[in-house]
Design brief:
Blueprint (H helix, E strand, L loop, with lengths): L5 E5 L6 H11 L3 E3 L2 E3 L13 E3 L2 H9 L3 E8 L2 E6 H9 L3 E6 L1 H11 L3 E7 L3 H9 L6 H14 L8 E4 L3 H17 L1
Parallel strand pairs: 1-7, 1-8, 2-7, 3-4, 8-9
Antiparallel strand pairs: 3-6, 5-6
Helix pairs in contact: 1-7, 5-6
Bound molecules: guanosine-5'-monophosphate.
């Protein structure tokens, strides 16, 4: 098996990491997105196998027992998320480098596991206040879910300096350009 590199983007919910990851996927053809498995409900336009593998809790627990995950977490209460080993291997076998949109703990797990083969980037929002504003702007979350996301975000901001790089996202366009530069450099090295 030919082993490639891993590009990890982690951040609190609402920091802009998904937009940055989508930008990179468009600009850098070597990259392919690691589709995570999750037990949460599908939202809006999401597609099974593209955004996530939407699976039942029973299936998820079975896969944990079978040691199919490189990392997994109960990111929110009763909602499991995890990276399947088979997903990374599938993309490497295609000759791709793998990019992850994953929560802060999961990102640090992967970094620990893959060491120098992984670049771990923490996307930092301008402030907690701005983050809360952005989360309020999302129509998809209930009040209870919103509260949970804000509480988690507060905790996650404290982990920034454990990452290889902190990417400030005060301005999305600038952050995307900076991300492109640093990922290209890492992949070219
Ligand atoms: P959402 O429900 O908004 O799609 O994702 C919630 C959080 O779970 C986000 O921070 C997302 O990056 C993270 N996440 C997505 N996939 C995984 C995964 O495979 N493992 C971990 N640990 N977190 C994930």
């Amino acid at each position: 098996m030919q082993e490639g590199k891993l590009v990890i983007f982690s951040a609190p919910s609402g920091a802009g990491k998904t937009t940055i990851v989508h930008h990179l996927l468009k600009q850098i053809p070597q990259l392919a997105f690691s589709v995570s498995a999750t037990t949460r409900q599908k939202r809006g336009e999401e597609v099974h196998g593209k955004d996530y593998y939407f699976i039942s809790k029973e299936d998820f627990l079975h896969r944990i027992a079978q040691k199919e995950f490189v990392e997994f977490e109960e990111v929110y209460k009763d909602n499991f998320y995890g990276t399947l080993r088979s997903e990374i291997e599938r993309l490497w076998a295609e000759g791709k480098q793998v990019i992850f949109d994953i929560d802060v703990e999961g990102g640090l797990h992967l970094k620990k596991k893959f060491g120098d083969r992984a670049l771990a980037v923490f996307v930092q929002p301008p402030s907690l206040e701005v983050l809360i504003e952005r989360l309020h702007g999302r129509a998809t979350d209930s009040q209870e879910k919103l509260k949970e996301r804000i509480e988690k975000a507060e905790k996650e901001l404290a982990y920034a300096d454990k990452f290889d790089i902190i990417l400030k996202n005060d301005d999305l366009k600038t952050a995307c350009a900076e991300a492109e530069q640093l990922v290209s450099k890492f992949l070219g090295a």
